[in-house]
Specification:
Helix content is 43%, strand content 15%. Helix 2 (28-34) packs across helix 14 (326-339), helix 6 (141-147) crosses helix 7 (149-158) and helix 13 packs parallel to helix 14. It is built from 14 helices and 13 strands. Strands 1-6-7-10-11-12-13 form a 7-stranded parallel beta sheet. The chain has a 4-stranded antiparallel beta sheet with strand order 2-3-4-5, with helices on one face.
Amino acid sequence: MNARDRFLAVLDGVQPDRVPTFEILIHPTVVEALCPGGNHADFLEKMDIEGAITGTPSSLYAKTVVDREKHIVRDEWGVTRGVGTEVVPMPMGGPIETMDDLRDYRAPDPWAPGRLQQLEDLAARFRGQRALGVHLHDSFSYPTYLMGMDKLLMALHLDPDLVRALVDLSVEHTLGMIEHAAKLGAEFVLFGDDYAATAGPLMSPKSFEEFLLPGLRTVVAAARERGLRVIKHTCGRISPLLDMIVDTGINALHPLDAAAGMDMAAVKRQYGDRIAVCGGINCGEVLSDWTPEQVREEVRRRLEELMPGGGYIMSSSNSIHSRVRPENYGAMIEALHEYGVYPA
């Protein structure tokens, strides 16, 4: 198996020759430390990372400077964002407060020239060699950006029609992005909306089922119909939502963070005949504070627990952020390649 086949095999429910890996984000400082002078694609090749995915959805939209001194920009959605030390600019405010605001609003064009240039570049370099992925949103993130998280969650009860309209707008945009990505050669899509915090879901399961689940189901079905595998990412303690998420037809779930109370091995036992699981290595402590030898031992331990029978893609518990020690990420990959091989 080459890297592409290995990654897609897991998403297709087939045991590969070795446990594959990918990350939804790798900070440039880690890239430079482990691959001096190289770009992100060079890094993927050097580290032999099987899943080659575009940057976070925010990176797919142009931004204009609002306040240079305060490092504030506005993206194509009309959302203001604060630019910090991490890769993703944090949303600060959106243009939608009422249904009247929404009537005159137009989402960005999913087919705009260069919209998926990152995917085109990855395809030109890795087509047939590494699994080509695109990172998109499903039914929750864009509404939270456009209204603000607190206002949107209150609107679930105070203005449900506005929430439904925002979800519809978001889903319609994502459907265009899926079609665009499929035509450019994407082989999997990761939907990156977070539904929960460490304590639990950001809304009741009933509200999730009513407002967000239909949109998630729609975009998952659209991706699968176009031959794309689907990885669903959501941070937090999502136990009350698991049945609904798995029932949408996803291929894999990421990252099932133990720090949020998620037991990846238990999820694999319960749903492993339907989905793969992705994650396993804590990025807030293990990859940031431990020694490389401790990281290697943690990788070995997690592989013993999660790799039997296939259905496992190793990754960090969220992303390779700026606090991750490059030597620890390097140790993780080395240990994965050493210990993550299935018997012939």
